[in-house]
Amino acid sequence: MDFKKTTRNILFLSFLLSCITTIAQEKQPEHCATDEYNKMLLKDYPNMMGSKAFEKELSKQIQLNKLERGGVNGASNRRVVYTIPVVVHVIHNGEAIGVGANISDAQVLSQIQVLNEDFRRMMGTRGHNLNLAGADVEVEFCLAQQTPDGCVTNGINRVDMSGVSTSWSGPGGNTDTVLKPATIWDASKYLNIWSLNFANSTTLGFAQFPGGPASSDGVVIGYQYFGSDDDPNVTIPGDFNLGRTGTHEVGHYFGLYHTFQGGCAEVGGGDLCADTPAVASPNSNNGTCNVGSDSCPAGLPDMVENYMDYSQDSCMNVFTNDQKARVVATLTSAANRPTTLTSNVCTPLASVNDDGSAQIEGIAIQDCGYGATASVRITNWGTNALTSATITYDENGGAPSSYSWSGSLNYGEFEVFNLPMLVSTPGSHTYNVSVSSPNGNSDLRSCNDDTNASFSVDPSYASTTQIHLTLNTDGFGGETTWTFKNGAGTPLYSGGPHLDNVTINESFDVDPDECYTFTILDSAGDGICCGIFGNGSYELKADGNILIASGGDFDSSEVTRISTITLKKDGYFADNGVSIYPNPTKDVINIKLANGNDLPDDYKIYNLLGQLVNEKQINHSSQLKIDASSLSNGMYFIKVIKENASISLPFIKK
Questions:
Q1: SS (H, E, C) 164-183
Q2: Which residues of the chain are under the pLDDT cut of 50?
Q3: What is the mean pLDDT of the chain?
Q4: Are 397 and 430 in contact (CB under 8 A)?
Q5: Is 230 left (phi over 0), alpha (psi -120 to 50) or beta?
Q6: CB-CB contact of 72 with 275 (8 Å)
Q7: Using CA atoms, how far apart are residues 362 and 333, in angstroms rounded to an integer?
Q8: SS3 for 311?
Q9: Under 8 Å CB-to-CB from 441, ≥6 apart: which residues?
């Protein structure tokens, strides 16, 4: 018997029995975490939505709007269609655009299109319905045309956050404490929407109800559920692939509750909209649209088509008149719910002839090395085609280096390229980049010329002779294993499965100038800390009791790379000024020696997975010219070696 699984089931069943009155408000297994988020925020913002005080004021605004517009339900005699300025923050891990969490422009645009179709009940689209209670909410969405600094944008803000985290929490975790503060644009001018990789794959998204803090306001959506598979340029699998997660969460942002709020206990439903029938529990995905189902005795059939239920995307197509009244009241009374009446960021800036912008997409640090390679996006916001520009870069404001970019970019087009590698030092640093001289002319918009990003380089433990592991297992030590490998990927030490709640001490002999990898794994995918199954942990230390890494709170695995490489800024590589060109390349890579004829010993070429794809001894200067035509397109590192020293330089094969 799997005791741990049985224990989990018993605990979960107990939880269900004790929370029978609230389980209807949670989406299982697909999960909108807005209610959970609201419960947290109400502690510090007791008058925001979810409170009696908020509902009292919103009710007054609804009645006022009805009187002003001469209708009984807020749908008659509308005098304005509200347009909402949107910025979409695409949070990714350094992938190419269109890969993984770095979703394509087309995927972003398809989501904006779905929002417009759904909130406008647009004829001929999935957002249209013939429901007698159905409403055109008369709300539209535009991607921002101006940044908070007053520069031009397309409303898509791509941010590589892999240096901080590769996955993000639901409410209350690093999404709120780290991601939002670092990336949010002024909530009084923009609806901030984040597309990201949730750590919990069952979370589809969550939103902040009106009345909460401006510093975290907006909507968060898992990138796998962002946008619509209906777009011919977008592929999204599954039942939540038509952009309705976005419609649902933006509905929360505008002040709408779930239709199943309060279950059957509330007359007319606990969502405070009389024209949405009470629903006992979420109509969750089961591969069908349960039209006609009635979960509350003596009630009307469930409105499974309502965007604020949990039906699959293909089923949803209704906002009601009472829901519309709440949305309009929110827009006309709540703070930080911007429209084009209060924000001008959807207004395009005056055009200029020459305008190049630079943005750091990410900074790659060599494993166990000191090389920092910045990926930079150059965008043309000028009416003239951008064919050349000068890129200046430095570390910590030190001596700058220059890179001459050339290409051909029309207005709004961009290219991502790698700058030459900087040799850094252990610790935290700032990488500065600026663009100038577009087409050899003055840059007519300076607000987007400069960018910077922080990065850190791990220390090397060059003097240690051993790495010391202390492992405290949790209550299921049999799930825990680990390996310690050298730079070639050869396992040198390994351990586990282990006994429960024990302490293991191991020491690994290490050599100088190596790159080691320690990996700890948990077969159940819940780490070794912290909770009802025990408080396991591990530490890695160098000689002298110097802490290298510690942890235990992970999913299936956690990886630590440990360097014993000595930083060599002097000697052969400094004297010879070794570099490579052209970069990017199509066919040939040349190793350039700035001084002297002292050849390196050999070179090795690795792909991004660390796999060796080519190597050769160098006996003649002709061998400094390397045929790269057989390499697949992508990024590589060439390691140039001289005696016991080496340098790794990145290059791109196009």
A1: CCCCECCCCCHHHHHHHHHH
A2: 1-29, 72, 74-76, 569-570
A3: 88
A4: yes
A5: alpha
A6: no
A7: 40
A8: coil
A9: 353, 354
At 29 the pLDDT is 38
Q: Considering only CA atoms, which of 491, 591, 476, 570 is closest in space to residue 523?
A: 476
Across 628-653, b (16+ Cβ under 10 Å) vs e yields: beebeeebbbbbbbbeebbbbbbbbb
Question: Is the distance from CB of 82 to CB of 133 less than 8 angstroms?
Answer: no
- Residue type at 323 in one-letter notation: Q
Residue 219's SS3 state is strand
Residue 20 is predicted with a pLDDT of 30
Name the catalytic one among 26, 30, 249, 395. Answer: 249
CATH 1.10.260.40 fits 572-653, yes or no: no
pLDDT of residue 499: 96
C-alpha closest to that of 395 among 434, 349, 432: 432
Instruction: Say how many Å lie between the first and final Cα of the chain, rounded.
Output: 54
Amino acid of residue 588? V
* CATH 2.60.40.3080 segments of the chain: 572-653
Which of 331, 332, 293, 330 lies closest to 310 in space, CA to CA? 293
Length of the chain: 654
Phi-psi region of 74 (alpha: psi -120 to 50; beta: other; left: phi over 0): left
Q: Tell me how many helices (H) and strands (E) the chain has.
A: 9, 30
The CATH number fitting domain 356-457, selected from 3.40.1180.10, 2.60.40.10, 2.70.70.10, 3.40.50.300:
2.60.40.10
Task: Give the CA radius of gyration of the chain.
Answer: 29
pLDDT at 652: 84
361 annotated active-site: no
pLDDT in tens, 480-522: 999 999 988 999 999 999 999 999 999 999 998 899 999 999 9
Whole-prediction pTM? 0.74
CA geometry: angle at 444 spanning 441 and 448, to 5°?
Answer: 110
Write out pLDDT tens, residues 319-370: 999 999 999 999 999 999 999 999 999 999 999 999 999 999 888 888 887 8
Query: What local confidence, expressed as pLDDT, does residue 569 receive?
Result: 47
> 627: which strand partners?
588
| CB of 179 closer than 8 Å to CB of 197 | no
- The domain made up of 23-261+319-333 has a fold known as Collagenase (Catalytic Domain) (3.40.390)
The angle that helices 52-69 and 321-333 make with each other, rounded to 10 degrees, is: 100
Question: Do the beta carbons of residue 221 and residue 195 sit within 8 Å?
Answer: yes
Tell me the three state secondary structure of residue 302: coil
Q: Looking at residue 18, what is its pLDDT? A: 36
Q: In the chain, which residues fall in CATH 3.40.390.10? A: 23-261+319-333
d(CA 95, CA 100): 7
C-alpha distances in angstroms, 41 versus 21, 121, 145?
Answer: 21, 32, 31
Determine the Cα–Cα distance for residues 36 and 172; give it in Å rounded to an integer: 9
- Alpha-carbon distance of 410 to 385, in angstroms, equals 5
Beta-strand pair 491-495/480-485: antiparallel
- For the chain, where do the domains classified as CATH 2.60.40.10 start and end? 356-457
Question: Taking Cα atoms as reference points, which of 141, 116, 143 lies closest to residue 127?
Answer: 116
**pLDDT for the residue numbered 132:** 93
In three-state secondary structure terms, 248 is: helix
Tens of pLDDT, residues 105-162: 999 999 999 999 999 999 999 999 999 999 999 999 999 999 999 999 999 999 988 8
